[in-house]
C-alpha cells in the first residue's frame, strides 16, 4: 500500500512541477438574475471562477449542471466551453459580446442589472505554455469544484482569492507580475486538494486505474534521463509494445514517445532558464546522448534553439 501511495504521489506531483502561467485576464462580475453567459473553449488556458457573493450554475455539453454557492471555486483546467447562469436552463449571450477584449495582463468588468438575486464573481483566464502541459494535466476532469468548506481548509488559497476579488485590490509597480504569480499560486493551491483525493482514491482518475500506464508515467516523470525506448518502457511495466502504446495513448491522450520527449524538454527548459548549468551539459542531463539530436529535438519542440531560449530567459529576467 505504501508503495502504491508513493508512486501515485510521484505521478500526481507531475501536474504541478511544470505549471507556469504566461498571462492572466481577470474580470469581476456584478450580475442580477436573470443572466447567462456562454464561454467559448479556450486553448492553452485554464479558467477559474470564484463565487464571492450569491451563486450560479455551470453547465457544459455532455455534463450534468453543477450549482455553485458563495465561497465555492470552479477550475476548468483545459478551458472547456461552458455556461454560467442564474438557472441551469437559461440561454446565454456569448462572453465575447460582453467582454470583447480579453488580452492577458488586463482586467475587465461585467454588469448585468436584473430584478432578481444578485451575485458577484471573480473570473480569470489563466494562459499557460502549451508545451509544458503534461498528458496527465490534459487528462484532468473538465471541471474541478471546491466547495466553500474545502476552500476554507486551504487558508492561503482562500485569502489569495479574497484579495484578488477585492474591488480595491492594490495597484502599483509590478502589479501585472504580482497578479500573474498570485493567480498561478491560486491555481496550484486549488489543485492540491484534488491531488490528495487522487492519492487516496486512484480510481477517481482513469489513468491511475491502469497499473502499467500509471507506472510508466512515474518512470517518465522521475527517470526521464535514462535511455528509454518504447520497447524498454513496455517491457519494464510488463506489457507488449503494441498494447502499451495503445493503452497509453487512450488514457494519457498522446503517444508515449511524445510524452517522454515533453518531459525531457520541460527539464531542459528549466535547466536553461533557471540554472547556470553549461549548455553542453544539458543534453545528457535530460536523456540525450547526442548533442545534435538534443538540439534538433529542442528546436522542433520550442521553435528556438537552446541558446536562443537561454538568451531569452536571461533577458526576461
UniProtKB/TrEMBL annotation:
InterPro entries: AraC_lig (IPR032783), AraC_XylS_family_regulators (IPR050204), Homeodomain-like_sf (IPR009057), HTH_AraC (IPR018060), RmlC-like_jellyroll (IPR014710), RmlC_Cupin_sf (IPR011051)
Sections of the chain in a coiled coil: none
Entry keyword set: DNA-binding, Transcription, Transcription regulation
SMART domains: HTH_ARAC (SM00342)
Record Pfam families: Cupin_6, HTH_18
Domain HTH araC/xylS-type: 214-312
Lineage top rank: taxon: Bacteria
Protein name: AraC family transcriptional regulator
Organism of provenance: Streptomyces ficellus
